[in-house]
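During the reporting period the student researcher (J.K.) took over the structure-prediction task from the postdoctoral fellow and processed the backlog of single-chain submissions. One of the processed entries is reproduced below for the supervisory committee.
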Amino acid sequence: MYDRLEEIWSHAARQKLFAITFYTCLASTLVACSEPTSEVASAPPVTVVKIQPTDIPITAEFVGKTQSSRRVEIRSRVEGFLEQRLYTEGEMVKAGKVLFQMDRKPFEARLQSAEAELSQQQARLDNATANLNRVKPLAEQNALAQKDLDDAQAQFRSAAAAVESAKAKVIQAELDLGYTSIISPVTGLSSFATKREGAFIGFGTDSLLTYVAQLEPMWVEFSVSENQMLQSKKREDAGLVKKPADGNFVVEIVLADGTVYPHTGRITFADASLSEETGTFLIRAEVDNPKLELRPGQFVRARLKGAIRPNGILVPQQSVQQGAQGSFVWVVNEQGQAEFRPVEVGAWQGDEWFVEKGLNGGETVVVEGALKLRAGVPVKIVTPTKDKDAPADPPAENESGAATKS
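J.K. obtained the following structure tokens:
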């Protein structure tokens, strides 16, 4: 019986001990959950950048096309049969080189005929001169009638005029004979021949034989829209952009593979009127092409350099967030807390963004870690780390207006 009482007592003691332990753990858990989280432990790590306004060079970029600075059509000035083509199609030809030779024989015959007519008219003039020299003294002595003197003078003047006409015909025949050798007036790249040996060459459209394109210097033409021109004027009037003196922009050429052409150019022509077909203004730049690397018809990018953004403010593009009311950034205030700041952004500048409104300079802007922030939350500023295997950042490319990111 004593064993049964001891067993009952032991079972009751174990149940009491289990209850005490359970409620003790439950109380500890509730107390732990009710304790506030440490502010230091909850401060999100962020990387920041200090904003400083400065004069920033900006560049406007446009799609352009190369053009020959002097594209000359090679045409025939006389009618006749083409005898020879004396150049290789597509080669560089020098000024004065004979490209085509027409049949000279008909023109040589015309020259001989003109020279013979000149000799005949010269003989008539000599005879009229001699006759006038005989009649004039006699008429002065009243040995001949005045009519005889008038007739002699008329014959002389007629013969002299005939000689001048014959001389003009000789000159024209010589010119026509010279035109049978068709030369290039410029040094440049030749095109294909539109006529072959034995073809009859006439006037008008039939006279075109080929063309020669001068490659040094080269033109680069691009168009600026009306909207871009108006925006540029507004930004200049507002002091947001300062153009170079006398509008002397430097034009940098970027080729199709992304390489920068080693020679820069200058704007030499800007159309005063707006094209009704495209709604743009034509701009032309002249670029040196000593190695003849540029050829007509290439599509390139033309970058206009020389303008400055006074006291411009740039922020990394990843620091700009988009919300329901527009763009904003997170700023770390003097208390080390995150502060919401709406901003108005402008054009891209490489991997950065111009800020038009919202920042005055001197602010500490959050670059990385902005997704974890709330207004008034303390932040922990850390040093940004770069991937060792990542390539070095390329130099920033300046762009403005409606230019696109490179």
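The committee noted the following: The mean pLDDT is 83.
J.K. will present the remaining backlog at the next meeting.
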